[in-house]
Amino acid sequence: MLSSTWNFIKRHKRKFIFTGVFVGGVYLLGKYAQRKIQELQERQAAEYIAQARRQFHFESNQRTCNMTVLSMLPTLREAILYHLNSESLTSLLKTKPANKLEIWEDLKIISFTRSIVAVYSTCMLVVLLRVQLNVIGGYLYLDNSVTKNGTNPLAPPDVQQQYLSSIQHLLGEGLIELITVVKKAVQEVFGPVSLKQGLSLQELEQQLAQLRELVEEGCASSKHKTLSWYMMPDEENTLASQACGLTENDVTTIKLLNETRDLLESPDFNTVLCTCLNRGFIRFLDNIAEFFRHPKGDSTPCTSPDRLSHISLPLAKIIPIINGQIHSICSEIPSHFVQDLLMIDQVKEFAANVYETFSTPQELQK
Question: What's the whole-model pTM score?
Answer without folding.
Answer: 0.81
